[in-house]
Write a structure and sequence with these properties.
Layout: H1 19-32, E1 35-37, E2 43-45, H2 48-56, E3 61-62, H3 85-97, H4 99-102, H5 106-126, E4 132-133, H6 134-139, H7 141-151, H8 158-175, H9 187-202, H10 210-216, E5 218-219, E6 222-223, H11 226-257, H12 260-267, H13 272-282, E7 288-293, E8 297-299, E9 302-304, E10 309-313, H14 314-317, H15 353-370, E11 371-376, E12 383-384, E13 393-395, E14 397-402
Parallel strand pairs: 2-10
Antiparallel strand pairs: 1-2, 3-7, 4-14, 5-6, 7-10, 8-9, 11-14, 12-13
Length: 425
Amino acid sequence: MSSAPGIPTTEIDPIGTPPSELVRALREMARRGPLHRMASGEYLVVTQAGVRDVLKNVDSFSGTVGDVGALAEEDTMLSGIPEPRHGMVRKIVNSALAYHHASLVEPYVRDLAKTLIAEALDACATSVDGSVEIMAAYARRIPSAVIARILGIPADDYELFARWSDEVLARQENDGGSNRPLLDLHPEFTRFITEQVEQRRTATNPPSDVITRLLTNEVDGERLSTRAVCTQAMFLVVAGNETTRNLIGNVLRRLALEPEILSRIHADPALIPRVVEESLRIEPPVQLTARTCTRDIRIDGVEVRKGDRLVLSLNAANRDETLYSDPDEFRLDRLRPRDHVGFGAGPHVCPGAYLARMETQVALEAFSNAVAEIRPAPGYVDDPNPVYWAHGPRTLRVRLIARSDAMERTSGLLADADPRTTIED
């Protein structure tokens, strides 16, 4: 790999460094410059301006994981498809996840969240130590059910999706997975998705879901192959599960460790969207993303060269002290609560951002309606997600106290709210 002159070096490994130490290190790095060369030879981008420069310039930076062009087109996930084809496939996905489709799922999410939190409270009341593992009981189950529903998958298979997603990520990490097709990582998952695709391909009147749209819409004058549709469907399952689960988990962990936040929500439920946005800023569920430079270019005033590999720290970008007052503080009074890159930026911004926001807001509303207090269970030890690029609790054992005034708010604050416009952008 070529070396751009004048770029400082760092011994910090953003994957293996403890979180509190990493936050301090990233801030010191940002004060010295937007890019730093790591021991691996890759460049770490640590300012928000630099991160936005890279994410928005899709003509100069490839999102392909591993070597550019190493995977066949039908094996390349949505995030790694080069332009202009990315935009064509993305348009199909967006059409299925667009507001008028996703909003149809919200009543289902609301009913599901109410049921699950009631079950979690019952589990607390009957357990030996009065606690419940809230990730398994609540945060994990909502996104797997929602993404499966949008894909048109039978309800009995929702739990499989969560397990398979975890297994795919674990195998990807163990395998080094950068140049291995997603479909080759989990034969059982692949067989299931392939069966779903073939059912729609041969159906006289297939359902109007994401899989059907990927099958029936053309990209550059041709329909996607079965394998290409399976790749994108599996990618959406894994990404939709992991990101939203971690977002909900991060919010719940913060409520457990900072109980005054739940008290503020009880007093003013209109704060719920701000709680979600501030969690996205200070604890983005995706901490790192990578790009490969496809031509010589400048990033935030620093020159990089074709072939250089860039690791973008969304965590550092969201704590940029030139943009945020008290960047390490969880504040609900920020003037522009959505001014962050928690879901990325530019053409490759997370296609499920609206859906993840909606799920988390509804989950938090149902939780706050039913729960008076949440505390870590005795002996609590942080158990982080082992996936290097993700941030969220793998498990979270807590004690819950039910609200004595718990009320039915099926058409409450968020029932008619669009998570895209509830608060100032």
